[in-house]
Design brief:
about 375 residues; alpha+beta; six-stranded antiparallel sheet
C-alpha cells in the first residue's frame, strides 16, 4: 500500500513537468484586452497580421475589439468595421471593459495621444475631413476628439439673507386684454439629400488606341453602389478592308467592396450595339436589317470584375481596369467586302465569352461636397 501511494505521488508531481501547461494559457500580451475594449492603432503599425496595409484614416478613429486571439493569431485582436487582425503591440487601450486595468501612467499617455491626434485632425483640409467622416461612417467607428476634463466648480458661499422691508401693497393696475395674434409659421423649402455622392467622366484608353471614340459617365449612390454608362461611337472608316464602325452602349450596375471608385468591384452589364466590321479582304458583317428597313441590334448580358485606384491625393483622377464575360445574341448581314458589295448571307449567332475589356482613366466630381457648401451658403 505504501508503494502504491509513493508511485501515485511521483506521477502527480512529474506529469505537469512532462506535458507542460502552455496549451491552455493565452499569451500575456493579449490578456490585457477584452471584447468590447476601445483602442487606437499606433502610427508605427504599417501592416495588419494578415499582411494588408492599413488605410490612411485608421489612425484617427477609435476601434472596438470584436475578438481576442484565434488559432492562427493567438495574440491577435479582431477589430470591428475593418475586420482585420492586428497585434497587441500595435494598439493603445483607450476605454476598457475592465475598469481596474488602466493605470494612472496609461491614462496620462492616452490623454497625450488623443491631444496629438486631435491637433493633426484640426490641420486637415476640409476635403480630407470629409473623407475621414465618410470612412468613420462606413466602418462604424468614431473620429478621435480630445476629451477635456470638466472643471470642478467650487461651492459658492451662501448669501446672507437680510430681512425684507415691509412694502405696502400698491393698487393693482388695470390690465387691458392683449389682441390675439396668430403665430406666423415659416414655410421652409424641403431640402433634398444629394442623390449621389460622386460623378465621374471617363474614357477607355484601349478603345482610343483602336480609333473608336468613347465616353463614359458613372454615378455613385449612397453606400457602395454605382451605375456606369459608357458609349462607343466610330462612324469613320480607317481602311477599306479593315474597319470597326459601331455605336454601342454598355450600361453596368456595380458594387464596391471598399468604397466608391476605390479597389475591388464586381458588376452586371448589358450590351446594345449597331456594327459594321470587316477584318479581311473577303467579307464584311453588319447589323441585320429586315425588308422593312428595321435594324436588329446585338443584345447581350454579362458579369465583370475590376480594380480602381486614385492618382492624386485629392482623389479626383483615377485609373480603372475591368474585364467581363457573358452572352450575346447577334443577328447579322454578310456582304462581299468590295465597293457596293452584294449581301450574300443573313444569319444569327449565339456568342459566349469576353464581353468587356477596359483600361479607363476618369475624373471624379464630389457632388455631395458641392451640395453641402450650397446649403451652408443658403443658410447664411
Amino acid at each position: 500500500m505504501k508503494r502504491l501511494l509513493t508511485i501515485m505521488l511521483v506521477v502527480m508531481v512529474c506529469l505537469p513537468k512532462v506535458f507542460g501547461q502552455t496549451d491552455f494559457v493565452v499569451s500575456a500580451p493579449a490578456q490585457q484586452y477584452h471584447v468590447g475594449d476601445v483602442i487606437l492603432i499606433k502610427k508605427e503599425a504599417t501592416k495588419y497580421l494578415t499582411g494588408e496595409t492599413p488605410s490612411r484614416w485608421v489612425y484617427f478613429v477609435k476601434h472596438t475589439v470584436m475578438r481576442v486571439g484565434s488559432k492562427r493569431f493567438p495574440d491577435g485582436l479582431l477589430l470591428r468595421g475593418i475586420l482585420s487582425w492586428i497585434g497587441p503591440d500595435d494598439v493603445m487601450l483607450i476605454e476598457s471593459t475592465d475598469t481596474t486595468s488602466l493605470s494612472d501612467e496609461q491614462k496620462a499617455e492616452q490623454q497625450q495621444q488623443l491631444h496629438q491626434l486631435a491637433e493633426e485632425i484640426e490641420q486637415l483640409s476640409e476635403s480630407e475631413k470629409a473623407a475621414l467622416a465618410r470612412y468613420a461612417a462606413m466602418t462604424q467607428t468614431e473620429v478621435v476628439k480630445e476629451e477635456k476634463p470638466e472643471p470642478v466648480a467650487e461651492p459658492e458661499p451662501e448669501p446672507v439673507v437680510e430681512p425684507e422691508p415691509v412694502v405696502e401693497p400698491e393698487p393693482e393696475p388695470v390690465v387691458e386684454p392683449e389682441p390675439i395674434v396668430e403665430p406666423v409659421v415659416e414655410q421652409k423649402e424641403a431640402t433634398k439629400e444629394p442623390f449621389q455622392d460622386v460623378l465621374l467622366i471617363k474614357t477607355n484608353l484601349l478603345y482610343d488606341l483602336a480609333t473608336v471614340a468613347n465616353l463614359g459617365l458613372e454615378i455613385g449612390f449612397k453606400g457602395k453602389y454605382s451605375f456606369d454608362l459608357p458609349f462607343m461611337y466610330s462612324p469613320y472608316t480607317t481602311h477599306d478592308k479593315y474597319r470597326v464602325r459601331t455605336f454601342t452602349a454598355q450600361p453596368e450596375f456595380r458594387y464596391w467592396f471598399d468604397r466608391l471608385n476605390h479597389k475591388h468591384f464586381i458588376g452586371v452589364h448589358g450590351i446594345v450595339s449597331l456594327f459594321n466590321v470587316s477584318a479581311g479582304e473577303s467579307m464584311r458583317f453588319q447589323t441585320k436589317r429586315d425588308d422593312e428597313g428595321h435594324y436588329h441590334p446585338l443584345l447581350g448580358i454579362g458579369v465583370s470584375y475590376g480594380y480602381a485606384w486614385f492618382l492624386d491625393k485629392k482623389e479626383h483622377w483615377c485609373m480603372e481596369v475591368t474585364v467581363g464575360v457573358g452572352y450575346a445574341y447577334i443577328q447579322y448581314d454578310k456582304f462581299y467586302n468590295v465597293e457596293s458589295g452584294a449581301r450574300c448571307e443573313q444569319g444569327t449567332r449565339h456568342y459566349g465569352g469576353l464581353t468587356k475589356l477596359g483600361l479607363n482613366i476618369a475624373y471624379r466630381f464630389d457632388t455631395a461636397k458641392k451640395d453641402k457648401e450650397k446649403k451652408n451658403i443658403e443658410k447664411d
